[in-house]
Amino acid sequence: MNLADLPTPCLVLDRTILQRNLDTMARAIARHDVALRPHMKTAKSIDVARLALNSPLVRTQGITVSTLAEAEYFVGHGITDIIYAVGITPQKLVQVAKLNASGADVKVITDDAEIAALISTHHAGVRALIEVDCGEARGGIGPDGPELTQIAANLGQSCAGILSHAGHSYSGRTPADMQRIAQAEYESAVRAANRLRGAGFPCDIVSIGSSPTALHAQTLAGITDIRPGVYMLGDLFQAEIGTHTHADIAVTVLTSVIGRRTAENRLVIDAGGIALSKDRSTEAAPHDWGFGHVRDLDGNSSLGHAIVRRANQEHGIVDLDPTLLPPNLRIGDKLRVAPNHVCMTAAAHDRYFVVEGSQVLTAVWPRVNGW
């Protein structure tokens, strides 16, 4: 079966590009004495996880997830060493305890002293990491404040260490920006870990990571694992900030032409806001790609700067490149759209249609969605 035979819209994954991305990150992390703990929040696939974990280029240490649906899915497929990297709530703690009772080791995170006390008294003995804010100002506490040791005291023997995430690396635009943010992330994590150990608290895990900082970190001495995720699949925004090139985008949305607005040099496609997401992250990047970059069926940029200018629920309005002759496309012809933010785009799809550098379908890989 070929891509031209598939129903649209659907999600296409080029395994050749995926493997190249995995190898690039593995080599970058292998420069340091640190384990790769890939974040599966984007890929949400056991097939992708196995490729990431079985790399001969780097030492791996379990995975990271962002939902308990992911945790249950991966435990069901035999991956038991997991960090659930979203602040835990009492109800979700019960779900984690059930997973651990089945033989898993799902670790949770918290930045709250009250929840830390609850974790320490839980009969299932769930271990927790203290979330440290290294500059993103989302979740976490500062590495130097009194809250750190208070939370550790409340956790007691349930304290497994600290976790930090430099999500604000997405605001960087140059290698120097990324190196600066990576260094701040590193210093915050190590400082917090040293404070815990100096106060007599256990701190076995010192976990950091984002795809940009994983690639640009200059030193990781004292870090135990690093958790990049979006690097596997890539997207337009990450290409714009230099995490990878535009040729390294492994996931595209296959779509059909459903309308031709010749006088306006536009097309209408059947991939709209649901299939593509309405993420507009590239709006603030060096180059704005609308709701996605429209490519030909081979995934090449033969249509030039053709972008999805408007995204309704099931319709995408494509502005064709005015510097090129209009493509000879008919209703039903298929195209591929590179996404702005692959995590958001992939979330609407339940499977990958896998190719390997051609239009020939080689596999179908299920994804896990929901919470």
H and E order: EHEHEHEHEHEHEHEHEHEEHEEEEHEE
Whole-number total of structural domains? 2
User: Poorly predicted ranges (pLDDT <50, ≥5 residues)?
Assistant: none
Judged by helices, strands and strand pairing, the structural class is alpha/beta
Total helices: the number is: 11
How many E strands? 17
Question: Helical residue percent?
Answer: 25-40%
How is the CATH topology of the largest domain named? Answer: TIM Barrel
Strand content: 15-25%
Task: Please tell me the overall pLDDT.
Answer: 96
Give the class-level CATH name of the largest domain.
Alpha Beta
Specify the overall morphology. elongated
CATH architecture label name of the largest domain? Alpha-Beta Barrel
For the sheet with most strands, the description reads:
9 strands, mixed
Q: What is the C-alpha radius of gyration, as a whole number of Å? A: 22 Å
**CATH-level-4 superfamily name of the largest domain:** Alanine racemase
Question: What is the CA–CA distance across the termini?
Answer: 33 Å
